[in-house]
Write a structure and sequence with these properties.
Number of strands of chain B: 11
Distance between the termini of chain A: 37 Å
Oligomer: heterodimer
Shape of chain B: globular
Structural class of chain B: mainly beta
Radius of gyration of chain A: 13 Å
Helix content of chain B: under 10%
Radius of gyration of chain B: 13 Å
Shape of chain A: globular
Largest sheet of chain A: 7 strands, mixed
Number of strands of chain A: 11
Strand content of chain A: over 45%
Strand content of chain B: over 45%
Largest sheet of chain B: 6 strands, mixed
Distance between the termini of chain B: 41 Å
Order of helices and strands of chain B: EEEEEEEEEEE
Order of helices and strands of chain A: EEEEEEEEEEE
Largest interface: A-B, 25 and 24 residues
Number of helices of chain B: 0
Chain lengths: 115, 110
């Protein structure tokens, strides 16, 4: 299964600023997924990032707030823009798919606190 | 939209007792996956079930996929302290997007 390096692992940010989270995969993958996990909650899919096309966002998430880049098949970034305390969460990237016998692999997560 | 619910939300057991979590989807799933998330960690894949009525075992863990492919269960026999964590089911629908269940937090008292 793929190995994902995600950074930063945690950050404390001022409201109104932006944070960019990076995920590097050790193999080429078609789709990368970005999730948010609020404290004590389940994972919510933010968007699917495809190389060479715009990301597809889930209901409740918009590109202006969570711009995503996917410059190649091994790398993606998620930016949390104009942050407020409500954005405090764990953000995780993931790769995988129906054809995978290893399920979906997750990065170690970015624990974001907005003050 | 698709919703995946799990019960119970939280379960506290004595070490050695059995544990079961149940997963129900509002729509038919092409497959169901199970993940374990240790406290402070990220979800780790446990298993995938694809066929209607499928049952798979991993040591003390037994996974089942319902006949209608809308529900699933995870049963742990004789829990150990290493089983502590949150167990999530996740449905992988036709859109190839993984939708997570609400999760069950398992606490095991030695």
């Amino acid at each position: 299964s793929a190995v994902i390096s995600q950074k930063p692992s945690r950050d404390i940010c001022q409201r109104g600023t932006s944070l960019t989270i990076q995920c590097q995969v050790d193999s080429q993958v078609t789709m990368m997924f970005w999730y948010r996990q609020q404290p004590g909650q389940s994972l919510t899919l933010i968007a699917t990032a495809n190389q060479g096309s715009e990301a597809t966002y889930e209901s409740g998430f918009v590109i202006d707030k969570f711009p995503i880049s996917r410059p190649n098949l091994t790398f993606s970034t998620l930016t949390v823009s104009n942050m407020s305390p409500e954005d405090s969460s764990i953000y995780l990237c993931s790769v995988g798919g129906q054809a995978s016998n290893y399920g979906y692999t997750f990065g170690s997560g970015t624990r974001l606190t907005v003050v | 939209g698709q919703q995946v619910m799990q019960i119970p939300q939280y379960q506290h057991v004595q070490e050695g007792e059995d544990f079961t979590t149940y997963c129900n989807s509002s729509t038919t799933l092409s497959n169901i996956q199970w993940y374990k998330q240790r406290p402070g960690g990220h979800p780790v894949f446990l298993i995938q079930l694809v066929k209607s009525g499928e049952v798979k075992k991993q040591k003390r863990l037994t996974f089942q996929f319902g006949e209608a492919k809308k529900n699933s269960s995870l049963h742990i026999t004789a829990t150990q302290t290493t089983d502590v964590g949150t167990y999530f089911c996740a449905g992988d629908g036709a859109t190839n997007k993984l939708i997570f269940g609400t999760g069950t937090l398992l606490a095991v008292q030695p």
